[in-house]
C-alpha cells in the first residue's frame, strides 16, 4: 500500500488474519502505518523511481490516498505492475473536474458546476448557471477535510482559490438537509457489495460523526444511493472500496459530492458494526477474493472521530472511558496529538440511537480533554 496514514494502518490490520504480507511505502518511519508494518520502504510517492523500486515483488499495489501523480501510475501499469484501483478509475478520485464531467455523462445527479477561469467568470457562473451567490469554489486537486473548498458570497471573495495555480471548479451551493455516504466494494471479477447508507455529520469541514444506517432514510432513497454507488463503481471500473459522498437535499433528492477510492472515514464504523469491515473487503477486492458480507451487526453503530486537544497523552483517558463503557471500541492511530488533528475514532453500537451517540460523544470528548467527568 502506498501511503502511511491510518487507512494503511487499519488495512494492514485487516490483512493479518489472512496471513497477507503487507508492504508499505511511507513518507517517514513515524507515519501511522509505518509504526506497525514490518516491511516499510521510506520514500516519496511523487518520485517514479521510488515507486518502481517499491512495486518490485508486489502482487498488487493499492493506495491509502489519491495523491500519486497519474503519469507515474500509468508508467507503473506500463511496467506490468497491477494497480488497484487502476489509474483510469483513480483519476476520478484525484480530480474533481474530471469526476464531475464523467458523472454528468453517466447521468449521475451532481450539483450544477463548471470549471471557472477567474473571479469574473465566477460571477458569470453564479448569474447564468447557478442560483446567484453564494457559490462553492473548489480546487480540482489536492483538497481534503474542507481544505481546497471555499464558499464565496461575492466576486471579490473569489480571488484566493485561483492562487494555487490549479483549475478551479464552481458549484451551486446545495441547500442540503444532510450528508450521506454510500459505500460499496467491487472486485476485478465484478462482484460488488453495498454497505448500509450512512449519515455523516461534519463540523468545520471535518467529519465528526457517522451514523449507520442513516436515521430515517427511506428505503427508496437508500436503495437509490446504493444503486448509484454500484453503478459508479462499475462504470468507472473501480476495484476496492468506493465511498460516494452524497447530499440529501431538502426536497428529497440525492446529489453526488465526492468519490474516494480507498477505505474512507465514513466506513470506519464497519470495523465493529458490520460482518466484514471496509478494510477487510478492500483487501479481498484488490486480491480478487470473494467479498465478505457487508451487513450490519447491530441496530445502530456510531463512529465518532477523536480530534486532538490540548492534552498530548490520550492514554491517560483510557481508564475512565473503558470503565464507563465496556462495549466502547477505541481505534487510535499512533499520531502525535495536535489540536484539531484526527488522531483516532471510537465505535459504539446498540439498539438505542440516542444512547449509542451519547457514549461515542462522551468518549471522544473525554479523550480529547474537553470534558473531565
Ligand atoms: P474535501 O475534499 O475537503 O472532502 P468536499 O468537496 O467534500 O471537499 O467539500 C467539503 C465540504 O464542503 C462538504 O462535506 C460539504 O459540507 C461542503 N460542500 C462541498 N460542496 C458543496 C456544495 N456544492 N454545496 C454545499 N456545500 C458543499
From TrEMBL:
HAMAP family, per the entry: PurK
Binding partners and assembly: Homodimer.
Family: Belongs to the PurK/PurT family.
PANTHER family: PHOSPHORIBOSYLAMINOIMIDAZOLE CARBOXYLASE, PURINE BIOSYNTHESIS PROTEIN 6/7, PUR6/7
Name assigned to this protein: N5-carboxyaminoimidazole ribonucleotide synthase
Enzyme Commission number(s): 6.3.4.18
Pfam families listed in its UniProt record: ATP-grasp, PurK_C, RS_preATP-grasp-like
Sorted UniProt keywords: ATP-binding, Ligase, Nucleotide-binding, Purine biosynthesis
Organism from which the protein derives: Streptomyces hygroscopicus
Metabolic or biological pathway: Purine metabolism; IMP biosynthesis via de novo pathway; 5-amino-1-(5-phospho-D-ribosyl)imidazole-4-carboxylate from 5-amino-1-(5-phospho-D-ribosyl)imidazole (N5-CAIR route): step 1/2
Function as written in the Swiss-Prot or TrEMBL entry: Catalyzes the ATP-dependent conversion of 5-aminoimidazole ribonucleotide (AIR) and HCO(3)(-) to N5-carboxyaminoimidazole ribonucleotide (N5-CAIR). Catalyzes the ATP-dependent conversion of 5-aminoimidazole ribonucleotide (AIR) and HCO(3)- to N5-carboxyaminoimidazole ribonucleotide (N5-CAIR).
Catalysed reactions listed for this entry: 5-amino-1-(5-phospho-beta-D-ribosyl)imidazole + hydrogencarbonate + ATP = 5-carboxyamino-1-(5-phospho-D-ribosyl)imidazole + ADP + phosphate + 2 H(+)
InterPro entries: ATP-grasp, ATP-grasp_carboxylate-amine, ATP_grasp_subdomain_1, PreATP-grasp_dom_sf, PurK, PurK_C, PurT/PurK_preATP-grasp, Rudment_hybrid_motif
Top EC class for this record: ligase
Key word Nucleotide-binding present: yes
